């Protein structure tokens, strides 16, 4: 049996039907080939042998028709093969790109740029951009792409690549040595060469692509690695690309080993990272190797500078240089007495030096030593924060300026446009951050109601941190001048929205908020909440006031107020059993003591 269906022989008079059948069979055969079932459904050798044996039994006319259909099938195969190859190639590219973009697992080691660990081959496979600008005085070398345009009687252009020998092979000119030439020098040399072939030729030269090469990154790294860079990239680019440099690496003593010429340079890269001073951040060349050492010595620049912190120290560092690396001093810096805290000669104690930088000449700069701490203090009372904030139900909430020891609470309420109709004066508060104190509950561990410390703790915990004792309701409605307190900077005046409900919580059937009605009692609100639930302690119902947080027995509350909370506690679990066990336990101890005494007395008498 053939691996595909042979077309049925039709009557020669029906040309249209014949053509349609042929097209259908060709499409079916193409579908079989494209889906990959051609090789899976048959054995090519056996099927071909059977097909030839059957073909020999046909008449000559029928054999010609069969061969014609076979040619149509072959044409279909030639059409499908490129399409199939293109689909497979596209699928391969997508899968390859997916694998390349898969993120690598991070590590705990602290890297200089917070990078992720990469394998030694990852850096070499990164895509490179050829769109970087060529550095000034760029010199041509092997691998550079050069565009040459010649305008004479006709215009001719070439796109050439510099050979590994540093030459350009130009038609009609031959080999031209261009190694280490700048673009201007290259243009002059080519103009000289083309003048022998073209008359009055105008030569233009441009750099099409930058050469790429590998540089090594060694030393204070996770592992030595190589990165591929372009001739337009600097030492800092190679360090960032490597992704293996540790935070302990010294950036001010980076060693750059070069082969042409054979020399080692010491580079200070910190000015580049801090103030974009690229004088020591050199462009890379073929054969370069970057070696990073461990950072050891440091000085601290603290206070009113743009970038305070610890900085790597070099013996040549001075006060002005380190302040410059720290971004300079701020407007708030007190320059009349900049303090330098330094180890004494015995290295066992410190001393302080004071420098006046307001009129200090740079010619008389102060040399720093390793371990120095430079402290630039803030000008006292500069840019004071003389503002307060009003929140909540004010007509114009926001931040307002005050005059210390002069502006009062009523003044700010009036500046904010007064209160809205929905303001809850009972819950209005003034928060003063300077009066906030932290209390550790572990200091007061006693539950004894007669313990004064425990009672003090409970009272403090009910108090809102930094809250001032002021009755804003009395101030607004009764003009109580005693509540018109002086405000301080950073005070917060907060007036929440009026809560026209009573909150019922604890052991009730349906706990939640119930609309406030002045004529309802505690029992009425509990009834509206579905009544007491299972294990409710009906004798210990209490009311919590929203403003003070006071807990009052329900029997002592005559009138409820909006925002009150009714708490229905749960009965303790079998307190009588616990008390009985304590009695039995104490009895066993007493009986045991008596029995021991009796035994001792009897042993003495019998002895």
Summarize the entry for a quick read.
The protein has helices at 15-34, 44-56, 60-100, 183-194, 235-242, 270-275, 319-325, 409-415, 452-462, 472-478, 522-528, 575-606, and strands spanning 145-151, 155-161, 167-170, 174-177, 202-209, 212-219, 225-230, 254-259, 262-267, 289-292, 298-303, 309-312, 338-343, 350-355, 373-376, 387-392, 398-401, 429-431, 492-495, 501-506, 512-515, 542-544, 551-553, 565-568. The chain is an alpha+beta fold and 607 residues long. The chain starts with 14 loop residues before the first helix and ends with a helix.
Please tell me the overall pLDDT: 77
Largest sheet: 5 strands, mixed
| Strand percentage | 15-25%
Low-confidence stretches: 1-15, 29-45, 75-109, 115-131
Number of helices: 12
Oligomer: single chain
Shape: elongated
The CATH class assignment of one domain is Alpha Beta
The first-to-last residue Cα distance is 120 Å
Radius of gyration (CA) equals 46 Å
For the record, the CATH architecture of one domain stands as: Roll
Helix content: 25-40%
The chain-level structural class is: alpha+beta
CATH-derived topology of one domain: Outer membrane lipoprotein wza fold like
Sheet with the most strands: spatial strand order: 7-6-10-8-9
């Amino acid at each position: 049996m053939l691996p595909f269906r042979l077309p049925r022989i039709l009557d020669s008079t029906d040309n249209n039907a014949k053509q349609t059948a042929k097209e259908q069979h060709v499409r079916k055969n193409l579908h079989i080939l494209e889906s990959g079932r051609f090789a899976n459904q048959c054995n090519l050798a056996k099927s071909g042998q059977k097909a030839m044996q059957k073909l020999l039994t046909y008449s000559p006319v029928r054999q010609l028709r069969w061969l014609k259909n076979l040619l149509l099938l072959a044409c279909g195969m030639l059409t499908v093969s490129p399409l199939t190859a293109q689909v497979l190639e596209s699928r391969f590219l997508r899968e390859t790109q997916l694998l390349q973009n898969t993120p690598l697992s991070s590590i705990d080691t602290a890297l200089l740029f917070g990078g992720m660990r990469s394998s030694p081959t990852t850096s070499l496979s990164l895509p490179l951009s050829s769109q970087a600008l060529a550095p000034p005085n760029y010199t041509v070398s092997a691998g550079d792409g050069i565009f040459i345009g010649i305008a004479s009687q006709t215009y001719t252009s070439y796109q050439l690549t510099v050979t590994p020998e540093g030459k350009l092979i130009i038609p009609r000119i031959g080999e031209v040595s261009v190694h280490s030439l700048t673009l201007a020098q290259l243009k002059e040399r080519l103009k000289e060469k083309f003048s022998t072939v073209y008359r009055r030729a105008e030569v233009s030269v441009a750099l099409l692509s930058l050469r790429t090469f590998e540089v090594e990154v060694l030393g204070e790294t996770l592992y030595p690695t190589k990165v591929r860079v372009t001739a337009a990239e600097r030492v800092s680019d190679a360090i960032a690309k490597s992704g293996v440099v540790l935070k302990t690496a010294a950036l001010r003593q980076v060693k750059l080993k070069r082969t042409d010429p054979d020399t080692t340079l010491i580079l200070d890269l910190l000015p580049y990272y801090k103030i974009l001073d690229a004088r020591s951040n050199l462009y890379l060349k073929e054969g370069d190797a970057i070696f990073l050492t461990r950072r050891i010595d440091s000085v601290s620049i603290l206070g009113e500078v743009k970038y305070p912190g610890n900085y790597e120290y070099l013996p040549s560092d001075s006060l002005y240089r380190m302040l410059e690396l720290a971004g300079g001093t701020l407007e708030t810096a007190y320059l009349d007495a900049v303090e330098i805290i330094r180890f004494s000669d015995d290295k066992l104690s410190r001393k302080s030096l004071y420098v006046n930088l307001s009129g200090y000449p740079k010619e008389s700069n102060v040399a720093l030593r390793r371990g120095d701490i430079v402290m630039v203090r803030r000008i006292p009372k500069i840019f004071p924060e003389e503002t307060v904030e009003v929140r909540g139900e004010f007509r114009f909430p926001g931040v307002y300026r005050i005059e210390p020891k002069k502006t009062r609470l009523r003044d700010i309420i009036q500046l904010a446009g007064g209160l809205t109709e929905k303001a809850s004066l009972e819950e209005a508060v003034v928060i003063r951050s300077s009066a906030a104190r932290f209390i550790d509950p572990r200091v007061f561990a006693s539950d004894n109601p007669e313990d004064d410390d425990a009672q003090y703790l409970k009272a403090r915990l009910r108090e809102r941190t930094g809250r001032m004792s002021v009755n804003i309701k009395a101030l607004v409605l009764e003009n109580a001048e005693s509540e018109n307190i002086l405000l301080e900077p950073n005070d917060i005046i907060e007036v929440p929205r009026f809560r026209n409900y009573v909150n019922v919580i604890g052991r009730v059937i349906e706990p939640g908020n119930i609309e406030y009605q002045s004529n309802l009692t505690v029992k009425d609100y509990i009834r509206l909440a579905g009544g007491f639930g299972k294990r409710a302690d009906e004798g210990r119902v209490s009311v919590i006031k929203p403003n003070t947080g006071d807990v009052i027995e329900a029997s002592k509350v005559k009138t409820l107020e909006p925002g009150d909370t009714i708490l229905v506690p749960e009965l303790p679990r079998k307190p009588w059993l616990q008390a009985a066990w304590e009695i039995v336990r104490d009895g066993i101890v007493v009986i045991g003591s008596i029995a021991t005494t009796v035994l001792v007395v009897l042993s003495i008498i019998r002895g």
